[in-house]
Amino acid sequence: MDSRKVLGQLKKITSSSAIFNFMDLANWRSLPKNAGLQRCGKSCRLRWTNYLRPDIKRGRFSFDEEETIIQLHSVLGNKWSAIAARLPGRTDNEIKNYWNTHIRKRLLRNGIDPVTHAPRLDLLDLSSILTSAWCNPSTLLNLSTLPSQFQNLVQQVPVCTTTTTSAGPFINQTEQIMQENVKGFSSNPTSTFSCQNSQENFVPSSLNESLVSLPNFYCNSTTTTDPKVPEPGDYSGFQSANNGYQNFSIDSVMSTPLMSQDPLNSSSTYVNSSSTEDERECYSSLLKFEIPESLDIDDFL
DNA sequence: AACTTTTACAACCGCATCATT
DNA sequence: AAATGATGCGGTTGTAAAAGT
Q: Does residue A78 reach within 7 angstroms of strand B, measured from its CB?
């Protein structure tokens, strides 16, 4: 009997009340024997806990579930069972798979390290370099310091040959946008984002501060020794176990205006997972830098 | 239409921990 | 305390379906 037939049989059996009798009377090891299955007990248990259990929620993850996963992961790390315990109807395996196939990639695409939940310094640094090259081609830029895949990119950037007067509006516009975004961060009531004198800690020294106004990511070493695991729905004061990185509230990243304004509509994000371009734009704006369309982030992740 | 590549997810594997003897 | 078995957990793999060429 091939494995599919066995699984079908197992499903058929476990769907009936008989399986509950088996489970009451014996352990997982004896279950397949009693049920006449050519499977080990461990396999049956896994099949039950990850697939056949009647209380498992089916279908795509909701917006709230996704945010919960991200926030819990920022505290718990890859403790999938702990995360699953706070998401009724979802299994650790399901959450783990969803993380690896959806959330992790999305975070990477938007310049966030999925392990530390902090913005990736290399991407931010690249952004600042590109911005500087655009506006101040005569200064700073030393292409030889860039990875080769970036050098071509930088060389494609239109050179501003005009004076700073003409470059001014661009800078002002950029700064305005950035400042508005920063305001958006700090004024977002759902954001736990804090600004505490950490700019010099976060912004790479090579940055031209007049051009790149990155938000000040929160760093509070006093909160890292005993991360408090929040109850579902209570993420106020949420801090990540920072692993030496500055903390960054993913809530701020995922709760984009686009998604937050109409969570119901956000389901389209999941129904049609091809919305990566929208997401790229959306998240990039929040992170204050643009990811060029021609740049394949995965190449250097 | 045929083939290749990518994506998504169930299942597997090995190790850790707990419970029982 | 040690041995053994059951269960839990997280990383990895296999594969069907979808998408791309």
A: no
Instruction: Determine the Cα–Cα distance for residues A152 and A80; give it in Å rounded to an integer.
Output: 41
CA of A162, C1' of C21: distance in angstroms: 45
Per the CB < 8 A criterion, the answer to whether A150 and A142 are in contact is no
Q: CB of residue A43 closer than 7 A to nucleic acid strand B?
A: yes
Q: Which residues pair with A241 in a beta bridge?
A: none
Q: What residues contact residue A276 under an 8 Å CB cut-off, 6+ apart?
A: A106, A109
Structure tokens at A299: 């190449």
DSSP secondary structure letters along A108-124:
HHTTB-TTT-SB-HHHH
Say how far residue A146 (Cα) sits from the centre of its chain. Answer: 27
pTM summary value: 0.52
Residue range A99-117, pLDDT digits in tens? 888 888 888 877 888 888 8
Calculate ∠ Cα A7-A11-A12, nearest 5°.
115
> pLDDT, tens digit, for every residue of A252-279?
444 333 333 333 333 333 333 333 333 4
How many alpha carbons fall within 13 Å on the CB side of residue A67?
Answer: 21
Asked if A81 CB < 7 A from strand C, the reply is: yes
Q: From residues 18-57 of A, list those within 7 angstroms of strand C by Cβ.
A: 27-29, 41-42, 45-46, 49
Counts for chain A of helices (H) and strands (E), in that order: 16, 0
Start-to-end CA distance of chain A, whole Å, equals 44
Nearest nucleotide by C1' position to the A276 CA atom: B7
Query: Does the C-beta of A104 come within 7 A of strand C?
Result: no
